[in-house]
Amino acid sequence: MLILHCPYCGVMADETELAPGGEAHLRRAGPESSDEEFMAYLFERENPRGVHFERWRHALGCGKWFHAARDTATLEVFGTYPAQVTEPPEALLETIREKRPGWQWRDLK
Amino acid sequence: MLVKVDRRRGAEGFCSVSELAPRGMITLRGDLSAKKLQAAAMAAAGVKAFPGRLGAVVEGERAILWFSPDELLILCPKAEVGEALEKLGKALKGTHHLAADVSDARAIFAVAGKSAREVLAKLTPADVSPEALPAGMVRRSRLAQVPAAFWPSGEDRFEIIAFRSVADYVFELLATAARTGGEVGWFAR
Ligand SMILES: [Zn+2]
Question: CATH for A3-24+39-99?
Fold first, then answer.
């Protein structure tokens, strides 16, 4: 059971109030990109056993999208943060460094 | 198992469950921090205060419910919806906003009785304890399998809205959860 803090309405939202939105911080490969880059944008996803960054939507609550950082193996939630950013806040990364020394996720570590 | 109940007549158990007469409902979206929008919403709803995050300003049939950082649901008598929309349109002219009559989208129910919280607690993952959901607050969540919103509307009484297309289902859920013999006594401890 996953319980995430919604940064918009502030409630602790049960997983069943939420809709998953897949991997966080994807960057769209534009018209100038190569076929390989565009394919990676469309299909290549992280599927780690450990630290992961995801998008979630408080679908049955306030309806807003937000980000969450959690451990896929233990279900520990490191934190949630608003949708209007392209990378996780530094304070959250620091928390994860303390809790999971040596972790890496795409180019974050 | 769901019990067979008559939505028009209501249901009596350890709490009473009833469907309320159609209420006027207006969705208002915009910048909720703007004084102009706050004043317009209060005038349209006919209430004297503006809710903060998760807040519900309830005065009888009238209410402003906080739905999200940029969305409110205004409740008023059904006959006043046209007038309220007109007021909003005039007050917010030139301001980026959306006001729409959604009165027909949702049905509205009341659960009343000492253990009204318990009826909701059986159906939603939301924390409905008196500390988490006191008078003056509203919670959007789900009841069993469908979206719903609920708020305290007086001593031992909650009002609940759910989409009209699933109103039968919601009524049966509430009636079943309120059946005599189903008391848990959690909030009475
Ligand atoms: Zn939310």
Answer: 3.30.2270.10
DSSP secondary structure of B112-163: ESTTHHHHHHTT-SS--STTTS-TTB-EEEEETTEEEEEEE-STTEEEEEEE
Quick check: ipTM above 0.95? no
Check if B144 contacts A (Cβ < 8 Å): no
Please tell me if residue A63 touches chain B, with a CB cutoff of 8 Å.
Answer: yes
A12 alpha carbon – ligand 1 mean position (Å): 8
pLDDT digits (tens, 9 = 90+) for B100-142: 999 999 999 999 999 999 999 999 999 999 999 999 999 999 9
Say what the pTM is. 0.94
- Count up the domains in chain B and report the number: 2
**In terms of domains, do B129 and B79 share one?**
no
Distance from CA of B170 to the nearest CA of A (A): 15
